[in-house]
Amino acid sequence: MKISVIIPVYNAEKYVSKAVESALQFDEVYEVILIEDHSPDNALQACRELVQKYDKVKLFQHPDKGNHGAGASRNLGIEKATGDFIAFLDADDYFLPNRFTAEKELFKDPKIDGVFNAIGTEYLTKKGKEEFMSNINDSELLTVNYAAEGKEVFRGLLGFTPEAFGSFFTLDALTVRRYSLESKKLRFNEVLRLHQDSDFIIKLSYLCHLKSGIIDIPVAMRGMHDDNRITKIIKYSPQYNQRQFLFWNSLYEWSNTLSLETDIAQHIYLQKKAFELSGKKGISKKIGLLAAILKNPNILRTKYRFTYSHKA
Q1: What is the dihedral of CA 41, 44, 46, 47, to 10 degrees?
Q2: pLDDT digits (tens, 9 = 90+) for 280-289
Q3: DSSP secondary structure letter of residue 37
Q4: Residues 185, 86: contact at Cβ < 8 Å?
Q5: Count of Cβ atoms closer than 10 Å to residue 306 Cβ
Q6: Which of 65, 132, 167, 220 is deepest in the core (most CB within 10 A)?
């Protein structure tokens, strides 16, 4: 295997060295691609030092040297990658020694486009732990509930399997054939500053044949610290609802180009519509909700039931 590990770097001066070195422990890692995204700290200098220290490390910035977000940075990394496989790693996370154990066997099957695994959680600061517990509070082992592959992964991620499939696996635990991304013309939605990873994973699970690897123990660790943006957003706050709307709207626009099963297409539309309504206020919100209920009462089964309890 020749694996390109793509690491978007923003405000990660304190963590990026550990991330890079965790990737370099594997003979299968052909190159580590750092995309420095105009960090406010000294991350750029830290990246330059890593390039000087390790031959496999390559450093890139956006053409205008500006800040474009994690999605755009990962897209640039995909363009620069030359390995046969692509793995992603956040600059404040790190790989464990078993990171590619499942991949070595599963990718012997040519029909497998991607393999996903479980990751664990490490609290790097007290404040990071408090914000995680308060605003996210998901399992410290981020994984799925059972082994799956193919379209069952896509349906499971959207909640359409008889048994609950579980939470999202993350990019840190995903390895995919570079050819599969190129042939499907799949990239991250650069409009999404948050949730572009979830958006990408759902689209990938539909377009490509994914298979679960190690799902009972972690193959990587995500770091929770003071600067995690995702932990600062309070669930069902106006900011949270807006981010959710952008995410579901991205999936909705994508789904309109496909012939999805009716239940899946309806679910994506209703989620998009629910969070769209959550951004409205007063009489326009009530009228919009009434019209949506008359059109499809199933909108009341979406996450809108949490947001409607807030005052308009």
Answers
A1: 150
A2: 666 766 677 6
A3: -
A4: no
A5: 14
A6: 220
